[in-house]
Amino acid sequence: MRKIFFSLMLAIAAFAAQAKEAPLTVADPVLEKRVMALSEELRCLVCQNQTLADSHAELAIDLKNQVREKLASGMSDKEVVDYMVERYGDFVLYRPPVKAATWPLWFGPFLLLVTAIFLLLRKLAKRRADASTLSESELQRAAALLDGATVNKEKK
Fold this sequence. Notes:
By secondary structure, this protein is an all-alpha fold.
């Protein structure tokens, strides 16, 4: 049974090692270079954390083809990006512009970090203040406990 399993796994590995993506056959390499450059600037709407160039989702492939068609029809790179933003919003941009609607995206993490540091420092200061405000009787009791612990150590 192990030999059959091992043979099957070896055969699968051999086929996987030979599998490669088909090379692109493009009529216009300059156009394809522009498409890839724009695909690096646009976000895959399905994957959301990948560019169109990195994504293999069907929608990403459709959007790349749409970019290719728009560029082939004579639109400039900026016009294609503007078309995509008009159709899908700033979310389609992999690096959205800094404006009022995107401030939470750009500055939200920093605001949360500053708030967390402020709350931590406040809590530490309060803890320090609470520790330093012992009454006279509490201080005497603590000193007596410490003296007792010292005496017990000396006897041993």
